[in-house]
Amino acid sequence: MTSPRGSRLLGDPRVRAAALAIGAGAALLLALAPGHLAPTAARAALVVAGLGALLALARARSRRAPPASDLSVLEARPLGRDAGLAVVEVGGRRMLVGFGSTGVQLLSDLGSPPESRP
Question: Which residue, 4, 8, 17, 85, has fewest beta-carbon neighbours within 10 Å?
Fold first, then answer.
């Protein structure tokens, strides 16, 4: 079982990168050694390098910008110091929401906006 400190260490990208570098270095040193360990160590080095490449790819994908939201606040009106009403559009549907210091609450689903005629 992994301790909370251990999972924090493994979650640190610098620790993972160092572990991959140490593993790859050790495998490469073994690959250069004479004897029957060289082919096995070379395969291990390739596996470690492949894992490092997959990790780098996964990190690059996670850094991409999130998709644009389809939420828009069409109009907002204050009702007091810490409260108000807003008409928002989400996914092609309009909703009337109330907001205040305690949060946001759906008051009415207004449905789809009316079709505009040219």
Answer: 4
Q: Where does the pLDDT of residue 7 fall: very low under 50, low under 70, confident under 90, or very high at 90 and above?
A: very low
CB 112, CB 94: distance < 8 Å: yes
In the prediction, which pLDDT does 88 show? 93
Taking the C-alpha atoms of residue 28 and residue 17, their distance in angstroms, rounded to an integer, is: 16
Measured at the CA of 95, the angle between CA 73 and CA 84, to 5 degrees, comes to 60
Alpha-carbon distance of 91 to 60, in angstroms, equals: 29
pTM of the model: 0.41
H/E stretch holding 37: helix 37-62
Task: Give domain limits for the chain.
Answer: 4-62, 71-111
